[in-house]
Hints:
By secondary structure, the protein is an all-alpha fold. It has six helices and no strands. It has one domain (2-140).
Amino acid sequence: MIAETGFLGYVLWLAFVGYSFLMMLRILRYQDEVPAHASAPFERAADVDHGVDWERERNIALTLLLSLCGMFAAAFFLSRSYTVVMYLLIALVAGDFVRVRASVPGMRGFSLVAGGWWWVPVALGSIAFLGVTVIVLMHSA
């Protein structure tokens, strides 16, 4: 990817992919305040106030997260074969996250402008890791 788009393109692509994973993790980990009138320890304010079926939402988020993991594991070996599938899957992920955020106003979103600079060191670290991995694998063969 870095050879095709350069460093800036790689950082943006990595953020695009990374945010898709983080969106599903945010849904899976979302915890709202426990209301004072909750009758059970698992009942949250989101369940009462927003009418969100969290079991269903977490099942959808887990399914999409596992789909992302499977798609990127397969794409690691055949990168060009999965280009369209990747964009379709990430569109489903983003659509699901936007839908859940519309139902739950307390859920924070993501902003590349506000917090996107931390993707630069992540990209540098991933480039270094992949470079060392290639060198080690070339010398072991």
